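I'm curious: can you give me some protein's one-letter sequence along with its backbone structure tokens because I've never seen that pairing?
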Amino acid sequence: MKVVVLSDNRKGIPESETEHGLSIYLESDKYKILLDTGGSDLFLQNAIKSNIDLSLVDYVFISHGHIDHIGGLPHFLKINSRAKIILSKHVINRKFYSKRNEFHDISLDFNFLDYADRLILVEKELQLDNAICILANTSTKFNQPLANQMLFSEDERGEIVPDDFSHELIFTIDDNNGIFVFTGCAHQGLLNILETVREKFVSPIQWVMGGFHLLDSRNGLRYESEAEINETAEYINNYYPITTFITGHCTGEKVVGYMKNILDSRLIQLFSGYSIQI
């Protein structure tokens, strides 16, 4: 499979622009897939620079309802008339908020009903074919990221409550060499996502790509300590010894450094324009 990062917070090559968002293009022998759409139309601009024709994409997978992962969807729909959009049913008409850098709305103002014939809504699980499977997280064995405490949503009564991340999904594809996992932002917790996938499949997890939502502590905000990050990395090292992790977006620079000290070459930092053949 060919994998290209179309949108990320970090700049790796001069041609690609950056934003606070994540979008990844995945191309196999059978499908062309877009994993999230970033926060704007920037992923479209970077795709053109990478000679990727997004009008030919077959499926768009939306990992969750936050604007930095779904904000580019209206722009995508203007240039692609064929792709099916896979997302949680709990994204539709939901409002989401963050109190990082002051309380603000992180929802997409969008009428999904206009594209009802193109939506594939998932609640718990979708087996798209013999290779692609979409899952809702089922594991609560491990703690969720501390940064989740900054995120909220509206309940059915319109009251603002802590986000339960019921709108978050996991994308997996079995390419016969093992399982590829896209985490989105891993709000449910990286280790919980890995546990959910491991319980589902016999094949080993070969690749994990996406944000881990493990932020660097700064400006008076305290998240996971170095010791806690090291504990997570040690667990991964012990239980997922053949897995390669490619992360960025909502994974802090210091966090990457701590984890890389333990995982070494099995941890790769992605960036806007990053590409890999897996």
